[in-house]
């Protein structure tokens, strides 16, 4: 089985994290996942803004979306954004 633990996380820390998640209610796990997703998108947006300070908010949103979708799907859904780079 492929290791999914981040390189900066020890096996013991991973075990503790898994134990904490298992004790959460499904609702709490869903909230945590939604919060993590939002944090990741914010981090991606900041990276896009640093690389492309000329992008407006719509362009930043499209660049973040491009980072999170398969390329073919992104171009099919947003053909007008083919020149937006992440």
Give me the strand/helix succession: HHHH
Annotation, overall tally of beta strands: 0
The domain count comes to 1
- Overall geometry comes to elongated
Q: Which ranges are low-confidence, i.e. pLDDT below 50, for 5 or more consecutive residues? A: none
Portion of residues in beta strands equals: under 5%
Alpha-beta classification: mainly alpha
Largest sheet: none
Cα-atom radius of gyration: 17 Å
How far apart lie the N and C ends? Answer: 32 Å
- Provide mean pLDDT, rounded: 94
Share in helix:
55-70%
If helices are DSSP runs of H or I spanning 4 or more residues, what is the number of helices? Answer: 4
Please, what is the oligomeric state? single chain
Report what the structure shows.
The chain has 86 residues and is mainly α. The protein has one domain (11-81). Helices cover 67% and strands 0% of the residues. Helix 2 packs across helix 3. The longest helix is centred in the middle third of the chain and has 26 residues, at 26-51. The chain is elongated. The model has no long low-confidence stretch (mean pLDDT 94).
Please provide a brief summary of the model.
The chain is mainly alpha-helical and 86 residues long. The chain contains four helices and no strands.
List the helices and strands and how they pair.
Blueprint: H1 11-23, H2 26-51, H3 57-68, H4 71-77
Helix pairs in contact: 2-3
